[in-house]
Structure formats: structure tokens, C-alpha cells
Amino acid sequence: MNALVLGGAGAVARETTRDLAHYSDFERIVVADANLPALHALLDQLGDPRLEPLAFDADDYDEMLRQFPGFDVVVNGLPFKYDLLVNRACVEAGVSGLDLSSDDAQFALHAAAVDRGMVFVPGVGATPGTTNMMVARAAQQLDPLQSVDIAFAAFRSLAPAPGLLTTTIWEFNPEVEERAEVYFQDGRWHPAPPLTGKRRVAFHDLIGEQEVYFVPHDESYSMPRSYPSLNFAAVRGCFPPGVMDLMGALLRSGILTMPEIELGGAVQDPLELVRELLWQNPASKQNETWAYGLVVEVVGERRGQRQLLRYRNHHPPQEQWGGESAYYKNVGIPLSIGAQLIAAGQVESHGVLPPELALPVAPFFEQLAARGITIEETAEALS
């Protein structure tokens, strides 16, 4: 079996590459990236003869169509703007794959993927990804499901990588079209501006209690479709307090929504100027605690009794997990596990499917635990 890892030397997907090298049975693992120095440095560090470098231009769709047919699984670790493009190329090439997030348009490719006899699973990271599988675990015990409340605490610096900085700015921008449909309630999606829907959530001990807010996220869209009985589905999230304070100030100042301005005799986009300023600021790449917290609460019925099932992740601290890697492993490892489950034939469905409908629950959590990521489950009876 052969795997192709796109963006496999990047900040997140390098942990996917490491996990594939350490745990997978793939006979050949081609790691594709545009950053050749980083790519060769990673492969030299890992020293696995199955790993092969490939110079890759993510904007070259024809190159995808040339490369993909030689592989059994395409593992997409590129920024989310490439999700639809890679998914389309996989379907056209008839090669199974998965990625870290999802674009709703990807699911329009479902019928074509079924016809090709392949599967593509969007959103196999931490959130979406592990959170989806927490809900899938609850769905094995509760019937019907009534509500899903997902919370994440992404404890990383503001700008560890260009794509992650873009993600942070996007989550605080009130004008992105996704803000029109943020959470699901009473049969429809509702809008929510940034920094609304505040809740305090107790994450694992490395993060503790944090305030989380509504975020437009993949799980909010897939859950009501996967579980039609749901009356409520939402994702709330936060970053470290310093990042929340800075981005909140930019939001309240109106800078994130300013029209174009004239600067130095040229018309400039203020949002692009902010992004560049933050990227070049050394403080934007520093953070005291690197960790990822997930808490998922699912309400439903079990034997006629309403119950709340709560799931909380735990993982080794940064002192054991290599500093920044304590954040990235929580995202990159699930992507690797999903690829291995597909290659092993444990994903039996065809089409473009979210994790909760595609991936087997028990093997997914067993593989997480083997890497040090454990999921705590508690149950509470409700009146």
C-alpha cells in the first residue's frame, strides 16, 4: 500500500508524516511539499527508507491528476483552501483520501465518489475529527440524540504558520459568509457574530477552565445531517487568553472590517496589512503553553432516560511531547490514523462522508490511546 502526504512537511502535517513513519504498514510514503529544505530536513530526521520526497505545487490541479493514481490513499495536510480541489482530484482519479477540515461543497461530490468505489473523509483532525468521533461514540449509546455541544481550546501561538494565522483571523472576522450559519437549533442554522454564545468549559488540566464562543465549524453542519433527530448542534472555541485579548481588540476596533485605504500612494487591504504585521511580529510565534483541549457534550435517551454523555481529551504535556508538538500532534495524529484505517479496509463505505459516518469508532480511539491521547467519558442522568 502506498500513501501520498500533501503538505507533509508543514507545521501540522509533519506530525502526520512522523506518525505514519512510526506506526503505519505502508510500503511507500511519498511526502509532497513546496518547502524543499523543510521536506528534506524532516525526512533526514526520520530516516525511514519508505519515505520519499516530492516537490509539489498545490495550485497545479493537472499535477494532482498525474500523481494521485499511483497511490492507495491521499492524505491532505494542506491549508483548508485546498480541501475541495484535492477532494475533486481524488474523485476524478478514483483514489481514496481524507483531509483536516471540510468545505461544504465537498459533499456534493458524494455520488461521484460512490460511482468510483472510493471514499473521501473531510475533517479528520482534532476539531473536526476527534470531536466527530466522540459524538459517534455517544450515538452508539444514546437513541435518539437531542443535542451536541462541542468546545475546543487551541492553545498555540497566534501565528505559528501562515495557514494557522489565516484561520485565526477568519474566526474573528464578522463578515465571513460562514457567520450567517453558525449553530443549528429548531431545524435551522442561525447566525452568530464573533465573541457571542459565551460559556465556561473545564478542559484537561494543562489548559483548565476557559471561556469559549460560537465559531462556524464543520461539525455544526455535519451533525444535523448525520443525526436528523438533533435539535441543537454548536461548536464553541478559544485560543490562549493573550490571543483572545488581541483579536478581540482588533474586532472591536473595526480594523478587521475596514474598507481599502490609501497608503504610500497605493490602495491597500487593511486585513492583509494586519495579517502581514502579525506574521512578521516575533511575539506572534511565542506561546507559554502548547496544548489542545476538547470537550464534547451529547444529550440523548438511553432506555427511556435522558442522559448527558461528556467526553474530554487528555494528552501528554509539552515537556514530554516536544514543546509545540503538544498542539500539532492532536491534529496530525488523527489524520494519520484515518489514513491507516482506510488502507486497512476498516472504512467500508464509499462516497464523501464525515468522520462520524465513515470511520470505525473503537479502532479510532484505540489508536489514539496508543499514541498517548486518551478520551475520558462521563455520564449524567437528566430530568
Tell me about this structure:
The radius of gyration is 20 Å and the shape is globular. It is built from 14 helices and 18 strands. The model has no long low-confidence stretch (mean pLDDT 96). The protein has helices spanning 13-23, 36-46, 61-67, 83-93, 110-116, 130-139, 162-172, 218-226, 241-253, 270-280, 318-321, 325-343, 355-358, 361-371; strands at residues 2-6, 28-33, 51-55, 73-76, 96-99, 119-121, 145-155, 183-185, 188-190, 199-202, 209-214, 232-238, 261-263, 266-268, 291-302, 305-314, 351-352, 374-381. With 383 residues, it is of the alpha/beta class. It folds into two domains: 2-125 and 329-370, NAD(P)-binding Rossmann-like Domain (Rossmann fold), CATH 3.40.50.720; 130-323 and 372-381, Dihydrodipicolinate Reductase, domain 2 (2-Layer Sandwich). Helix content is 36%, strand content 26%. The strands form three sheets. Strands 7, 8, 9, 10, 11, 12, 15, 16 and 18 form a nine-stranded mixed beta sheet that branches. The N and C termini lie far apart (51 Å).
